[in-house]
User: Which sequence fits this backbone?
């Protein structure tokens, strides 16, 4: 399944979602189904580690560790 960027017309937030191409996206912030598919930004060369670390910091701030592999999660504090 590919990643898609979606912009919510109701709450005006953009989200990156992993969904089937035939599925209807719903906004993770407000639950609205009024999502508009956007072009995804391609990671620039040699910037992957910075992007991954930024996503991990954001996930940590939000209280989840979905951007970490299961082996990496073992060393993280329980929250």
Assistant:
């Amino acid at each position: 399944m590919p990643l898609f960027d979606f912009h919510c017309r109701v709450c005006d937030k953009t989200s990156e979602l992993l969904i089937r191409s035939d599925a209807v996206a719903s906004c993770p912030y407000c639950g609205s189904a009024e999502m508009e598919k956007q072009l995804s930004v391609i990671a620039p060369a040699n910037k992957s580690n910075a992007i991954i670390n930024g996503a991990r910091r954001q996930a940590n701030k939000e209280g989840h560790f979905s951007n970490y592999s299961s082996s990496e999660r073992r060393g993280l504090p329980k929250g």
User: Anything to note?
Assistant: The mean pLDDT is 79. The helical segments are 48-62, 70-73. The chain is about 25% helix and 20% strand. Residues 56 and 74 are 15 Å apart (CA to CA).
